[in-house]
Design a protein that fits this description.
The complex is a heterodimer.
Chain A lengths: L1 H16 L3 E15 L3 E12 L2 E5 L1 E5 L4 E12 L2 E11 L4 E5 L3 E8 L6 E8 L1 E5 L4 E12 L2 E11 L4 E12 L4 E10 L5 E6 L10
Antiparallel strand pairs in A: 1-2, 2-3, 2-4, 3-5, 4-5, 5-6, 6-7, 6-8, 7-10, 8-9, 9-11, 10-11, 11-12, 12-13, 13-14, 14-15
Chain B lengths: L3 H28 L14 E14 L2 E14 L10 E14 L2 E7 L2 E5 L5 E9 L5 E10 L4 E4 L3 E5 L2 E5 L1 E5 L4 E16 L1
Antiparallel strand pairs in B: 1-2, 2-3, 3-4, 3-5, 4-6, 5-6, 6-7, 7-8, 7-9, 8-11, 9-10, 10-12, 11-12
Classes of the chains: A mainly beta, B mainly beta.
Amino acid sequence: MQKKIICFFLLILLLAGTVTAERRVFITAETTRYLRDEVIRFEDGVEIRYEDMVVTALTGEYLGEKEELTLKENVEAVQEKNRIKSPEMWMDLEEEHIIFRGGRVESLFYFQQGEEEEELPVEMWSDTLEIWQQRGEMLAKGDVKAYYDDMDMEADEVLIEEEKDLLTATGNVYVLRDDGSWFRAEKVEYNIEDGTFVAFKMESEFELRENP
Amino acid sequence: MISWSKNKWKIIVLILLVFAIGGGIFWYFQTRDIILPIGEEEEISFHFRLAGNEVVGWSRGEMVWRIKVQTILDPERERSGEMGEKLILQDVEEGFFYREGEIFFTFTVEEAHYHTRSEDLNLFGFRMETPEGDWMETSEMVYTKTDDILRSPGKVIGKVGKTDIEAERMTVLLEEEEIIFEGGVKMIHQLEVE
């Protein structure tokens, strides 16, 4: 009997680990159209709240079968102090994968250098910006320009990995610091926490001027 | 031949019996109380009343809606209205809206008004349900046959898929199978995450 009770409790514990949690997306809009095949269209302004993120746009479309959401026209996503503006946003709600696209994407993120340091903003412009919320990763692609602390950066792609505190810029990387020093490289890894660089495949015109 | 003299008393008794039964029946119909399902007798008079029926709406040769109803009332005072004759459908068991021969959604109502000339419907205390389990509630829905559209002039609440929804107005375009919510639309969508 005792064995049976222990087995029962073990089963409950096992099941508890796989219980499905529910999360909510709050949507407000002026006009909403439910079409065939679980397609929902938002018109005349839409606001979506998901966890601590608020996204606003003029129009939107949700594909129920795929759990995909596309917002268009004056898309603005705000998460605490972080802010992204874009002509279009696509989101896979299940995978928590977001792509900002459809023109120049303007973003502002805050990062902390060291535990007691003040948070500093990264301002970035790119053709697209992908975010994987669960992985804490962000990938900016296409004519990327970024400004962080005392440096301007240009690259084909910039990947920010939040957990590793790592910013990796690849393809035609050009970095210009406020003191006038600059360098070019094929790939640059920038440690956000300690402010150190690792540059790969530096080209012959590479030049670095130290602070006087 | 029947002999009068032989059956005189029998014939007199038979005639009296026929008059007595006929008089009794006449007296009963003149004096009985008419029991109406809802409302007071003196408030409304009815041209006719049917019980246990189905009312069906057709458009371009296809069944658009069907209502299973216990009581159909035809109030005389509504007969001269612009909408034509109005039938009041009470004790509605269930209603159906169809698209291409299939049930688009089922509904229940507290009362329905069917306008026989325009073939429009007013559905009061309306709740619709789809075969997939979606539902919507509102105090009144109006179906107009000319454009094949259902409109709610008032607030609607409901659930579509995993989304709770609330809006000031709702329009159902039956031809396009499209539902439009307007005015301060609020939705709460449930995401399931393991």
